């Protein structure tokens, strides 16, 4: 073996001594950068969606799916806890890998709704900001995986909140 071949063999046998930066814990976000941008939707409600919102009883809310595989779907929030995720038993089932099995819960206390992230991989966003927990305002935009939704409260609760 000549000198050149021996040097290459020695290099291959040397253990990797390169220092590793950062911690060993990593978080991966699946999707495209475009999925992470905030685009408000509130102004483009259809007549059917406006009617559905107007018909909401007190202490109820409505989620409208604005984009994602189930765009156009509507979900009535009329219980104290609504689960959202990829688990088949979730109250709102989103069958997509960008959604965790137990992604988030929407809780109701009186006529106030709050979203609580359940330690999901890709996070829960309200109006473009990642949140662990947030009170939902009328018209708020939620992002769960690749799904974008708008949240609307009952007009009866909205009127009561404004003192009408």
From TrEMBL:
Keyword Membrane listed: no
InterPro entries assigned: Cell_Proc_Reg/RNA_Proc (IPR050923), FHA_dom (IPR000253), SMAD_FHA_dom_sf (IPR008984)
Annotated FHA domain residues: 82-131
Pfam families given in the database record: FHA
Annotated stretches, region: Disordered: 1-29
Keywords: Phosphoprotein
Feature: compositional bias, Basic and acidic residues: 1-19
Keyword Ribosomal protein (UniProt): no
Biased composition (Polar residues): 20-29
Protein name: FHA domain-containing protein
Provenance organism: Microbacterium radiodurans
Organism taxonomic ancestry: Bacteria, Bacillati, Actinomycetota, Actinomycetes, Micrococcales
